[in-house]
Amino acid sequence: MAKIRYSAIGMSLVAVLMISSLPRNVRAAGGADGEARIRLHATAFEGPIGSVNAFGAININGKQVSGEELLWGGELIEATYGTGTSVSFDMIGSVTLGEGAAARFSAGRSSAEEAGRRVLIASLVRGNLAIELHSDAGAYVEAGTARFTALGGASFRIAMQDGRAFLKTISGTVNTEPSQQGRPTYKIRPVDELGRPVDLGRTLSVRARSTRNFQIQVTDENDKPIPDLPILFSLGSPCLGSLGLGAGAGSSFKKNTDNKGIAAVPFIVGAAKCVGSLTAKVEGTNTEFTQQVGVQRHSFWNTQNSLIVAGIIGAGILASVLIINSGGNDQRIQPVPPPVVKP
């Protein structure tokens, strides 16, 4: 069986991961110069593509779940810190997400090679993952700007560090695709309610059990706002609280930028004192902004409030003494004549 190298599928991967019910098209090219280009038609499965089994709690599309859950394709799976997550795909293989890792998965069938060979399509958002493929399944992985394709039976690991992807091949054949040329360059920065850039400092201090709005702006290299761009907000530690409101609240939140390039997320601060990170990332790229956040527990008995309360109590005691001395009313004290003693 001749080895076939895939070329990058470009922006169509985003549509593959987000709209699992639509047909998926994946493009591949011959590995050697002069070979004819081969087109792969990856079609979505009609049922679940696999299942995820967490050793503890995990987040799927921002909602915390535990135990085994079916996957239909396109879900954002986040492994919480302190736990690992195992994902199995029918007739494809298995994936293990490291602590704090986040990724999306989809799957399809290749009609151009081996008549229906299944292909795992993955997008690593952060952290690291390990993939083990069955002998008759392939894989295509996107991590930041890097692209990897694996042949049947391959076993490998990919880790994201400082926006770069690193590959470690354990067995089999895994190819690294050339970086896409002409990919747009984005700049991301925090802004206030009026859209003005702000400096949040090295660590943003927030009050426990409070709610605040965290927003960023995305521009191109010429500082022109970029509208309708998917931004993935995520919390680096569960003790920080949650992002979003109501049923959609969780450790991650996805929002598209408006016509000013701004995307905002409600930040519900947790009750415990802790330190973690809040990250805003342009999905599908390595462009991100990370802010350290420190949660401070609010106490009424601070120095200022203690002085105020002491003043109030002192004033109350003084008022009580005056009232007691005055008999509890404002009548004047009448002199009492001395007793008369008769001999």
Give a structural overview:
The protein has helices at 12-18, 303-325, and strands at residues 24-28, 38-42, 50-54, 58-60, 63-65, 68-71, 76-79, 85-89, 93-97, 102-110, 117-126, 128-133, 137-143, 146-150, 155-161, 164-171, 174-177, 187-190, 203-207, 211-219, 230-235, 241-243, 252-256, 262-269, 274-282, 288-296. The chain folds into two domains: 12-177, Jelly Rolls (Sandwich); 187-296, Immunoglobulins (Immunoglobulin-like), CATH 2.60.40.10. The N and C termini lie far apart (142 Å). The strands form five sheets. Strands 5-4-7-10-11-13-14-17 form an eight-stranded mixed beta sheet, covered by helices on one side. The protein is globular. By secondary structure, the protein is mostly beta strands. β8 (85-89) and β9 form a beta hairpin. Mean pLDDT is 76; it is low at 1-45.
Shape: globular
Stretches with pLDDT under 50, minimum 5 residues? 1-45
Structural class: mainly beta
Mean pLDDT: 76
Beta-strand percentage? 35-45%
What is the third-level CATH name, the topology of the largest domain? Answer: Jelly Rolls
Order of neighbouring strands in the sheet with most strands: 5-4-7-10-11-13-14-17
- The arrangement of helices and strands along the chain is HEEEEEEEEEEEEEEEEEEEEEEEEEEH
Helix segment count?
A: 2
Helix content: under 10%
Strand tally is: 26
- Taking all Cα atoms into account, the compactness measure Rg is 31 Å
Provide the CATH top-level class of the largest domain.
Mainly Beta
Q: What count of structural domains? A: 2
Terminal-residue CA separation: 142 Å
Biggest sheet record: 8 strands, mixed
CATH architecture of the largest domain: Sandwich
